[in-house]
Design goal:
- With 263 residues, this protein is of the alpha/beta class.
- It has a single domain, classed as 3-Layer(aba) Sandwich (Stationary-phase Survival Protein Sure Homolog, Chain: A).
- Helices cover 29% and strands 24% of the residues.
- It is built from eight helices and 13 strands.
- The strands form three sheets. The protein has a nine-stranded mixed beta sheet, with helices on both faces.
- A hairpin with a 5-residue loop joins strand 10 and strand 11.
- The longest helix is centred in the middle third of the chain and has 16 residues.
- 40% of the residues are buried.
């Protein structure tokens, strides 16, 4: 019997420790192929390299680095590296949460979305920044991945795993803590806000450069939103869909009617 194939990628780069954590979470569930960007490509969303070449390097058995984006990695792996269609694509574990409008910018989510477009179950995984954030996600990922392999119809899921309430974020979680069952909250995308701005700076050579954007601010606090659930130390699992059509077409019908009356 052929083992299921699992494709793993990220947007933090092929050498990110959290990528190895994700692979560890999936070991034993199937054959694993890793294809990830050679450098960090955070914020690359669904970018794909149409107008430049790509270079790929095998860095160890089953692991490849690619000069492109996370979406390039999924495309390249599915079209060239994988000996058969993947049963699951996992992207992450991202260093920092992907909540609310983050999913529009996230390379982690973009890679999973590319797999979903190609008819594969896909899971994007994010965890708290810090040395031990990814460790809390490992047992949750394994539980979800085991259920997703072979499941139909295929889905696109965005998982955010905070440490449990009351845990010491500076300490590595113990095996007992990781083995303790944690409930998973099914959520919608919340409102994610950042401190906007453009900050002029000067480099050591006296030349001007600019830093855009700032740190996140409190988002929506409803527990059925991913922002509120994570703020309350709950594991958040958000189903995503790629149909961006507005639910309500009436305003556009009214616009077209107004245009006709102007003729």
């Amino acid at each position: 019997m052929t083992r299921p194939l699992i494709l793993v990628t990220n947007d933090d780069g092929v050498l990110a420790p959290s990528l190895a954590s994700l692979v560890g979470a999936l070991e034993g569930l199937g054959e694993i192929v890793v294809c990830a960007p050679e450098t960090e490509r955070s914020g690359s969303a669904h970018a794909i390299s149409f107008h430049t070449h790509l270079r790929a390097h095998a860095i160890r058995p089953g692991w490849w680095s690619l000069s492109g984006t996370p979406v390039d990695c999924v495309y390249f792996a599915m079209m060239h590296l994988c000996p058969r269609p993947p049963a699951l694509v996992c992207s992450g574990i991202n260093v920092g949460y992907n909540l609310g409008s983050d999913v529009l910018y996230s390379g982690t989510v973009g890679a999973a979305a590319e797999a979903h477009l190609r008819g594969v179950n896909a899971l994007a995984v994010s965890a708290e920044r810090g040395e031990h954030g990814a460790a809390w996600a490992v047992p949750i990922v394994r539980r979800i991945a085991a259920e997703l392999i072979g499941r139909a119809p295929h889905v696109l899921l965005n998982l955010n795993v905070p440490p449990p309430a009351g845990s010491d974020h500076a300490q590595a979680p113990s095996p007992e803590q990781l083995a303790a069952p944690r409930p998973i909250t099914v959520t919608r995308l919340g409102v994610r806000r950042y401190r906007d701005g453009v900050e002029p700076r000067t480099d050591p050579m006296g030349r001007a450069y600019y830093w855009i954007g700032g740190p996140p601010e409190p988002g929506s606090s409803d527990l059925d939103h991913d922002t509120g659930a994570v703020a309350a130390s709950q594991v958040s699992l958000t189903p995503l869909q790629l149909d961006l059509t507005a639910h309500d077409l009436d305003p556009t019908h009214s616009l077209v009617a107004a245009l006709r009356s102007d003729d």
